[in-house]
Structure formats: structure tokens, C-alpha cells
Amino acid sequence: xxxxxxxxxxxxxxxxxxxxxxxxxxxxxxxxxxxxxxxxxxxxxxxxxxxxxxxxxxxxxxxxxxxxxxxxxxxxxxxxxxxxxxxxxxxxxxxxxxxxxxxxxxxxxxxxxxxxxxxxxxxxxxxxxxxxxxxxxxxxxxxxxxxxxxxxxxxxxxxxxxxxxxxxxxxxxxxxxxxxxxxxxxxxxxxxxxxxxxxxxxxxxxxxxxxxxxxxxxxxxxxxxxxxxxxxxxxxxxxxxxxxxxxxxxxxxxxxxxxxxxxxxxxxxxxxxxxxxxxxxxxxxxxxxxxxxxxxxx
Length: 298
Description:
39% helix
């Protein structure tokens, strides 16, 4: 049984559409159908039900999918290990726009003291990073700490505080200010980002507005920061976001302005799964927290 057939089945199970899956896999639909039939013959059960309404996983197919995902992950990890001569690796998840802020000042020091270690990065949105932690496909994450679904399954090590920033169109009436207080935004409408992590983050940040006496009103909900920036207009819509967005080049059409209220901050933490036994997790956390305590991130 070929590992490629497993990958093809995983893709098909994700989209439940032979046309879409075969196109993504760069193969013909008949070829994909033959490979799936081969899997079903070797396993001895029907993995997929096909009818005029579409494609569905059978109960056996769902069980098979869970198992081969682990097999493919283990296979890929073994190949990676062999490729690098057994060198130790640490996979770190970090937000797209937070790489410089969260990692650049400390990576060289850790690598210098651990020359046999290969650091790998997963730059993504927080939801994808959390999923990777739970699946043990990432060893560590550096994220703002908020209570979100599944966060109780992870361990946190608080590192430093990051102030909030407000993002607005560069022609917004407040865009000329060097800093703002939250009360200055009481008449503004807010743009929110979907997702269980982002939803918790929005509530966490909007609680600061409530503490200064007003209920923030949401004008729209989007999927990504990039979408929010594209839809942002001079006379409508601002976003509260982590301060590292000031250092990222998101768009020339927006400005990031500091929030001056000292109590408005996010706690940046290192997250990991309690059952992840990578021996590099502890040394990396120790190194990171040491730098944080010395003021490298203040």
C-alpha cells in the first residue's frame, strides 16, 4: 500500500469531491478513483459512499482516516529526521505578523547555545497554530493568551506584556494622533475577526472599552486582517489589535496608533501540549523567559 494513496484519501476526505481532490492532487479523476478502490480492496471495507448527492465517509472511512493521518504524520517526521541526520528539531508556531516581534531577538542566542538544534517555524493564524499544537505537529506557540476553546488542554508560560494598538484608515479623522485613549474611540464602530481564538480575543479587547464606560459596536465581521484592511474606509471601522501590528507592513492605506491606557495590554505566552515530550521545549522556554525577564521585549 503506497503512502501516496493515503495522502490522496486524506485530500478526498477533506473536500468530499473527486473533481476538486483530483485537481488539487494534479491527477485524473479515474486515477484517483482507482487508487481509492485499491485502498478499499486492501482494507476490505467500503470507505466512501458515492451517490447522486455526493461523496460521504462511511463509519469505517472515518476511522481509517484518523489512523492514516497519524501514519502519514509519523512517516513525514521520520523522513525529516533521516534527512537531517537525526538533528533535534523544535517546531514553533507564531502569528504571521508577529515573527519579528516575538522571535527575532532571541533565536540567534538559542541556536548558538544549541548548535545541533534545527528550529522550524509555522507562521499562521492563531487557530491553525493551536490546532497544530493539539495535534503535536508544533511543539511550541508564541501567542497572546486568551481563554478560548481547547485552551484548557494546553500549558502556558507568560513571557511579557504587549500594548494594544488601534488600526484605522490613514485618512480617518483620528489618524494624525500619535496615541489614543480608549475613550477616544467611544463613537467608533469596530471591525471584528471571526474564529474561536479571534472571537475570544475580540471579547478580551472589547472588555477594556467596557471598563472605560462604553459598549463597542461592531460594524462588520471579517475572516482575516487583510480582509479588514481592504474593507476599511476613512469614515468607518477601526480594529483593536496586538501592538506588533505596528511593526508589520499590512497596507499603505492604514495606520496603527498606540493605545495610551497602561492597563490595555495582552499577555504574550509560550503555549505547549502537556503530552509533547520534545526535550527542547523546556530549554527554549527557559531561554525565552530569561530574555523576557531581562527586558528584551519591554
